[in-house]
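Recall the central idea of this unit: under ordinary conditions, the amino acid sequence of a chain determines the structure it adopts. In this exercise we apply that idea directly, starting from the sequence alone.
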Amino acid sequence: MAFGQVRVDIDVKLPDIVFSTPPPLVVVQPGVQVVEDYDEDLYVVDDAYWVRRDGRWYRARDYHGGWEVVEERRVPVTVVKLPPGRYKRWKHSKKAVVVPASYRDDDHDHRQQDRGHDDDHHKGGKGKGKGKKK
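Accordingly, the structure predicted from this sequence is:
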């Protein structure tokens, strides 16, 4: 009985998306943020960056890069369902919340933007800002 080996090499060009500082993020729906005014859909969900290119999904753990190929079944469904190109060069509206990419607070509810929440809180403030005077 003879045994053989089969070797298949597939070259996948990983994204070269790297930021030197945290990019501005815009909350576009609960749990989903996009990098504002970027040339392609670049999502942030569950503290990871996600991008789709040529039918493949890629993930980086932070804005410094380190991209890896991810099977679609491992991509958050909220991102997979979004139509390609929807958030390309996306700019926030006055109602949207811009969140620094370095902002991490597990107890924070980004959906507060719909309840007139003060944007200064998202910029590292204590919730005090241009709102009502006390």
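Confidence is low (pLDDT under 50) at residues 103-134.
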